[in-house]
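Bit of a strange request maybe. I'm writing a small parser for C-alpha cell strings and I need a real example to test against, not something I typed by hand. Could someone generate the C-alpha cells for this chain?
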Amino acid sequence: MLMLCFLMCPLLEIWLQRNNKIFKGCRANAMTTVEDIKDNSFWWMVKRAKLSGVNEDSWNNFEELDFG
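Reply from user aminoacidic:
Good idea to test on real output. This should exercise your parser:
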C-alpha cells in the first residue's frame, strides 16, 4: 500500500499538471506541484492505510514517521 501511494501520487499530479497546461493553458510552478503531491499522498495514507500517529505537519516536513 505504501509503495502504491508513493508511486501513484506523483504520477497523478504530474499528469494533472500536464493536462492543465495542454487543455487550459495554465502552468503551475514546481513548488506548487510538490506541495500538491505531499497533500494528496498524506490524505491517501491517512484514509487508505489507516495510520495512527501521523499528522499533516510531520508528513509535510518529512520527519521520521512511526508506521509500527
